[in-house]
Amino acid sequence: MAPLTLDDLLPLEEYMVKRREFFDSHCRYLDRYRRVRIGPRLTLVFENRQTLWFRVQEIARVARLADAETLQQELNLFNSLLPGLNQLQAALLIEIDDPSKIAAELSAWRNIDGADLRLRLGERSYPATLITCRPEDRCAGTSHWVQFHLDDAARAILASAQQQAFVEFGNASRNFYRHQSAPMSDDIRQSLLDDLKLSDRDAHKARARSA
User: Fold this and answer.
1) Domain boundaries, the chain
2) Number of H helices, E strands in the chain
3) pLDDT tens digits along 157-181
4) Which is deepest, 49, 74, 101, 128, by most CB within 10 Å?
């Protein structure tokens, strides 16, 4: 997927004037096209250029980032989280019941593995790859980055209204949390297919430029 550039970002002052409008639009977009709840404690948010644009703008707002060099560093970080060819990229968010006991609540989640999280498409199962897998990442807390690598069969199922698509979390040897999402809506499925098509297009362009 084509990386975000400095030209994609709004100046801080202009963004601040319209922030409420952007925030409301972002929430509606996530709810309709990108957010999947897995039981009471987990949420999967599929990321693309639009979701990461809002993240970068919010970081620039909170940190008052204005100089091009610092903004480019942030863009470099978030561009690395864009889905690549045949990939879906997502943030896995853990909900904490009692923030005053965050260390105790997170202890059960520190040994999670990408295989605990699976995208189920028809009869097929696609385990996630956990990107935030270092000890310091696991100690960071309530969010992780994951990838799903999909083949042509997965795309065909995702595009088929006759076959269900959902996400499940659980491990047979660890029963502390076993849940699956509701079936993905047509809007979410089409949005994910669009991600895959954009990644295809941009990969082909990159190959053509290097040829």
Assistant:
1) 6-210
2) 8, 9
3) 999 999 999 999 987 666 778 999 9
4) 128
